[in-house]
Amino acid sequence: MSPVYRPSLPAMESESLIRGLLFLFLTVVGVPGNSLVIWAFVRVARHDRRLLPADAIVLHLVSVNLLVVVVRCLPETLATFRLAAIFNDASCRGIIYVFRTARTLSIWLTFVLSAYQCLSAAPPGSRWAQVRATVAHHLGFIFLALWLVNCIISCPAAIYSLGFRGNSSLMEHSINAQFCLVQFPSGLARDANGAVQTARDVVPMAFMTTASIIILVFLYRHSQQVKGLRGGAGGKSGPSAERRAAKSVVTLVTMYVVFYGVDNGLWVYTITVTQTLSSALVSDLRVFFASLYASVSPIVIIISNTKVSRQL
After folding, report:
1. What angle do CA 310, 311, 312 make, to 5 degrees?
2. What is the pTM of this model?
3. Helical packing angle, 280-304 and 89-120, nearest 10°
4. Mind listing the pLDDT tens digit for each residue in 205-263?
5. CA angle, 307 as apex, 304 and 310 as ends, to 5°?
6. Which positions ≥6 away from 257 have C-beta within 8 Å?
7. Listing from the earlier edge strand, what are the strands of the sheet with 180-183?
8. Among residues 112, 107, 146, 68, which one has the least CA distance to residue 255?
9. I want to staple 78 with a disulfide (CB 3.0 to 4.6 A). Which of 9, 62, 84, 275 is the partner?
10. Percent of the chain scoring above 70 in pLDDT
């Protein structure tokens, strides 16, 4: 039997079993969770005959997150438990390309969602309210532009991807992705690709963090105004739909910054410390944290979005 597909029992118990269970968890949580949210929004669109811009952004985000889980976590689970021999040169190129594109789209769509929610706090008639209306009107163009840009940026990693062969001579200038290998032609090409990926992730994370801080300030001021208006009347009212949506966006951004902050930290560590390039451990951790947001975020949406929760 080939040692690649039939590892010893202790190795399977100590490393592969834990790894497989982690990716199985992401698959079991992420696929049904994202699918339920998509189904709920489809029902809302059929009932209302349209989706609000914020709902359209969330639907697009959830669809991309489902793509992340299906194209990365599910194949990793099947391959780890030796249920299917999926990874060869062609499949590695396709999986890594789609995963990196969808992963980065998830970052940018979360930024678009936080920015739109931030603009929603602007008073009617203001310049920022006009910007929000412009964004809502050109939302389809924004989606298309994000897809095109990220598809182009993800090309180098897909071009240099191949199935892992266990050949040590291939490890130079390469990144070990467990079942696949991303072999760059030179160290400069690898580092340049890493720098572009880091910038592509850090920029929207900085923007969405800023937007979330603005949302939090708005929520705080709004709560103080409401307390002042209630005064001694002692009246109580539940949170408005706008406040629930704002809190949901802040929660999603916080999760994103934490999970992808770890992911990007590991990526910087990978391209700066040569010894980590030949090990799949850091790559596995990166994929896990990058996929964790895609798997867990539907839970936040189901709990906080009244339209989705009503449909479910």
Report:
1. 90
2. 0.82
3. 40
4. 888 888 888 888 877 777 777 666 655 444 444 456 667 777 778 888 888 778 877 77
5. 95
6. 205, 208, 209
7. 161-163, 180-183, 174-177
8. 107
9. 84
10. 80
